[in-house]
TrEMBL record:
It is a peripheral membrane protein. It is found in: Golgi apparatus membrane. Residues 1-12 have a biased composition (Polar residues). It comes from the Eukaryota. GO terms for cellular component: Golgi membrane; Golgi transport complex. Belongs to the COG2 family. This is Conserved oligomeric Golgi complex subunit 2. Keywords: Golgi apparatus, Membrane, Protein transport, Transport. The keyword Repressor does not apply.
Length: 271
C-alpha cells in the first residue's frame, strides 16, 4: 500500500494552474486520488475486462489515466501473487498430504465402483423379490375374493333351500287342514297318517301335489294367503339374485313353479 500511495502521489502532483481568480486559496491543492479498485469487482461470475474498463473510465467520479490504471492493476496482480505464495508456503505440509492422499485414488474409485455395482445388484434382487411377492399377494387376494363369493353363494343357496322347504311345509299343512274340514275326519288320526305319507320322500311328490290340488286350502284366512304370497315373492327375488343358470336354482324353481300352480288352483277353488 505504501508503494501504491507513493505512485499515486507521483502521478498526481499538485497543479500549478489556478482554477479561477476567486479560488487562489485552493491553488496549491492536489487533485483527488482515485479510490482503490475493490476486489469484489473481480469476483463476479460475469466479469468482463473490456466492459469493466469502459465503465471505469466513463465514470465521472474517477480521474485516472490509462497508465496509472495499468500500474495499479499490475500492483494488484503482484499483491495477489504474493498472497497466493504465502498461502502455499503456510499450507505446504497440507498440500503435500493432499498429494499423498490423491495418489492411488483411481484404485479407491474402482473399489467404490465395485461396491456400488454390488449394491445395485442387491437392490435389483430385492425389487425382483418384491415383484414376485406382489404377484403372489395379488393371486391370493383374488382367490380370497373367489372363496368369499363362493361362501356368499353357498349361504344364498342354503337360504333359498330353507325358504322353499318352509313354503312347501306351509302348503302341505294348509292342504291337510282343508282336507280335514272337507272329510270330517278325526284330526289326530289323519295327522298321523299324513306325516307318514310325507316321510316317504321325494318319489311321492306328485301324489302330494295331487292331494294339495284336491284339498285347495278351503277356508284359509287372508293372513295365511298373504304370508304365502310374501314367501313366494322372497323366494323369487332370492333365486334371481343367485342366478338362474345354477342347477340348484333351476331345481328350486321347478319346485316353486309346482307349488305356485298348487296355490293358483287353491285360490280358484276358494272362489
Amino acid at each position: 500500500m505504501t508503494t501504491l500511495n507513493a505512485s499515486r502521489q507521483r502521478n498526481y502532483a499538485p497543479s500549478s494552474r489556478a482554477s479561477s481568480p476567486h479560488s487562489s486559496s485552493n491553488e496549491d491543492a492536489p487533485l483527488p486520488f482515485p479510490t482503490a479498485l475493490p476486489r469484489s469487482d473481480f469476483l463476479s461470475p460475469t466479469f468482463d475486462a473490456a466492459t469493466y474498463l469502459s465503465n471505469l473510465h466513463t465514470a465521472s467520479s474517477r480521474h485516472q489515466s490509462l497508465s496509472d490504471l495499468r500500474t495499479e492493476l499490475r500492483e494488484r496482480s503482484a499483491a495477489i501473487s504474493a498472497e497466493l505464495l504465502e498461502l502455499v508456503n503456510s499450507n505446504y505440509a497440507s498440500f503435500l498430504g493432499l498429494g499423498d492422499e490423491l495418489r492411488g485414488g483411481a484404485d479407491k474409485v474402482g473399489d467404490v465402483r465395485v461396491a456400488l455395482l454390488g449394491y445395485k445388484r442387491q437392490v435389483e434382487e430385492v425389487k425382483r423379490a418384491v415383484g414376485e411377492r406382489r404377484e403372489e399377494v395379488r393371486m391370493t387376494v383374488g382367490e380370497l375374493r373367489g372363496v368369499g363369493g363362493a361362501v356368499e353363494l353357498g349361504r344364498g343357496m342354503e337360504e333359498l333351500g330353507t325358504r322353499v322347504e318352509l313354503l312347501e311345509k306351509k302348503l302341505v299343512v294348509g292342504s291337510y287342514a282343508g282336507r280335514v274340514k272337507q272329510d270330517g275326519v278325526d284330526g289326530k288320526a289323519e295327522d298321523d297318517g299324513f306325516w307318514e305319507e310325507e316321510g316317504s320322500g321325494e318319489e311321492e311328490g306328485e301324489d302330494v301335489e295331487g292331494q294339495e290340488d284336491e284339498a285347495g286350502f278351503v277356508g284359509s284366512s287372508p293372513a295365511k294367503l298373504g304370508s304365502l304370497a310374501r314367501d313366494y315373492v322372497l323366494i323369487e327375488r332370492l333365486a334371481d339374485s343367485l342366478g338362474t343358470d345354477l342347477p340348484f336354482v333351476r331345481k328350486m324353481e321347478e319346485r316353486i313353479m309346482r307349488y305356485a300352480e298348487t296355490e293358483a288352483t287353491r285360490v280358484l277353488k276358494e272362489k
